[in-house]
Amino acid sequence: MKFTRAEDKLIGESGQAGGGPVDPSPLTGIWLNTDKRTGGITKLVLTQNDGGLMVRAFGACDPAPCDWGEVRGEAFSSGVGSPEGMAFTVSYQFGFMETFLAVYFKGGILVLDSFNTFNDDSGRSNYFSREFFHN
Amino acid sequence: MKSHPFTRANDLGVAVDRSSNGTTVDLSPLVGTWNSTNKATRGIIKIILSDHEGILMVQSFGAWESSSIDWGTIHGQAFAGNVGTLASVGFKAFYNFSFLQTHVAAYLNKRILVVDTYNTFKDDSERFNYFLRDHFYQ
To answer: How do strand A41-49 and strand B130-137 relate by DSSP bridges?
Structure first.
């Protein structure tokens, strides 16, 4: 078995087969930004499809939120021996920009980090933002 | 005024005047050697961030017994705090090992570098894909 750090190691014998898809069900639901006046993502809708995670994000736009559409995300657990999802990543390709979302669950809140790369000639800086969601 | 496409309000705003600075995000807030605040971490023990002709270079070291595992140096991508500024506040990088892929997603919180890794196994080792968070100081 190969490792990059100690955390990659399985500790002890679980008595059951591990590996396979992480269960995304602990993450599913409708998540609303804790900041009602956010200029970022206003809502996340997380669902399960064929055992995998589907993500639909909505950006703060006027007069109504911008629906980013639904894409498949990847769920992650808290450790190599745990099947229970508590984090996910997802990428959106908009053409003029790309957004990578890295999200984890802590204390009843979803914490979302977004990494936004512009592919146009608008001169805008690629930017990072951090937001919080409740359900 | 030219209107730009956007996905949310934060995408809009006055772009930076790059006539004297080019187009790159300023890497200096990130550059340096960052050590884990947890000496007993089982995750990343150290990260070295450097500037190579305006490109962010990332070298990570994983905690392993009494020493560490050098993950090697790769290109990273730095990000500013908003569309109209240049100072970097975060970065991401992607390690593609033979048996594992690791997305590194990091940001500055005051003087602490917070590093989240999202780890996907590509082998049949029966390990679940996992998330891990580490904190670093200079």
So the answer is: unpaired
